[in-house]
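Re: weekly structure request thread

Next one in the queue (574 aa):
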Amino acid sequence: MLTGGPPAATWQSAPLSPILNGMYILENPVMQRELLVNLRMGRGFILLMVYQCLLGVVVYLAWPQDTRLDLEANSDDAKKTRNLVDMFFLGQFVVASMMAPSFAAGSITGEKERKTYEMLLASPLRPPAIVLGKLVASLAHLAVLVFSSLPIVMLCLPLGGVHPSELAAAYLGLMLSVVTFGMISVACSAYFQRTSASLVVSYLLILIPALLGVLYWKLLADYGSLRLFLLVPVAAVSIALCVGLFVNTSVLLLHPPDVGSEGKEVVDLEQESQQAVGLVIQRDQFPDKLFAPPKRDDLMDDDANPVYDKEIRSEIFSQGTLMLRLVIQVSMVLAIPFMAICLYIYPQLAAWYICYVVVFNMLVGPVFSAGSVTSERERETLDLLLTTTISPFQILWGKLVAGLRVSSVLTLFLVWPVLLACVMVSLYWANLLAVLAYLSIVLITCVTTAMVALFCSVMAKKSSIAMMSSYLVIIIMFCAPLAIGFFATTFYHDHPVTQAVKELSFTSPFSAARSIPLDVGALSPEAASQAAANPKSWMLYLCYLVFSVLLNFGLLVTMMWLFRTRWRVAGLGN
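Done, posted below.
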């Protein structure tokens, strides 16, 4: 069997100077090739320009308008500066958490999908050099975005309230987070066969560290020295995790289990079920067959949709049901604390659990639909599909329902605790209409994420571009209104435009879920007074329903028109 270099003991005990001066850094062809491809793309410069312009607009709008400023540590102006800097780093941290897997999760699975994986392992490159090259190249553009914000953040230092040491520590923590999330994604990319599986698992593994990082930075905002002190053990854990994943991934490439037969591992489903740890999926039983039906062993009915049947029964998960088991188990484990706190201990916070379910669908939903049409283009079978007697509506319906079926079933695994809470907590009996509204938000979000991903797949030429475009559109539509509202509330609290900005957040399911009123009469006086301080209404929820229905209908009609006009089909194989 061909391997990627000398035995493990050789490269693990290699001296430091060859590592720095040899094929690891300066002469690493993998790193050089990936850097040239990634950093010279036109969309990279456009993204950098948009990112810088956005940061500049934020600083300009948040800059104090007073002619005289109070630069004392506890003054209002100093607090506004700290809020601005904290918002900067929280925003960059969330962006880095979302973008790191999109850059790194396909670093090695891309080689497997292009059928160049075995040639890479047969090259003279050592496995650590391959892993290091893929990691650095995939995160280089993200690092450029992070460091490009430093001059703009430095403009806030003269306003007071922020010490340069806090700024340096914040950037150090931000870069450690980027490297850690990137290393997790590269490790998933080496383990899985497909970018979709690697991306979903990467997002799920990164979700909890990202949430903990946001809470850590936000809750300790008034304790700067403690926040800097706790950064040391956090950095130590991050470095240890990166080193462990780096060594494990290098060993995996040294002794790859998935070479031969064009880099595809033959999976014995019966043996996999016997050796599986935790959840075991039975593809021929309910409810498992809803999202992972068995292969067809009989003929289709005459009125069946062949596109849907092919999509739902195709082996899109590569390594058996491993990816599905990981998604279900990890998502359920992560949901336990949210479930206990938001549904049972403090039921007035039920909307926050719905927000967690929406976040899960945001991460999982586009994966199963973003490659529906682009995969046909990449296999050069879209021309043949359009020349069949299958109508454009049947093609789109089959593609959409197949991806929506998997993502919605995985999402609904997190919804059953809401139904269980209706039986165990008396508060929900008086708020059944609100519970139904919560469920409708989850279902509509499932349809919207799948529809947006399918539309991006129709418009794009490659699956990777379609997937990144899907995430970008969904984040802008769901999260941008919340960020704008938070900014307006923080820096323009008394301005009349602030209320109008809050009302324009009807595109976000998070705003819709939090706007649904709950009858908290049975709660404690403190909880009731807190709920009364934040009045809610059904109007934002109804606006979200109308917007989502119109959006999904418009996207479906547009895709049908594009298919009838043979949009971007001819000549794509050249």
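The mean pLDDT is 75. The chain has two domains: 29-63+73-254, 320-564.
Next request, please.
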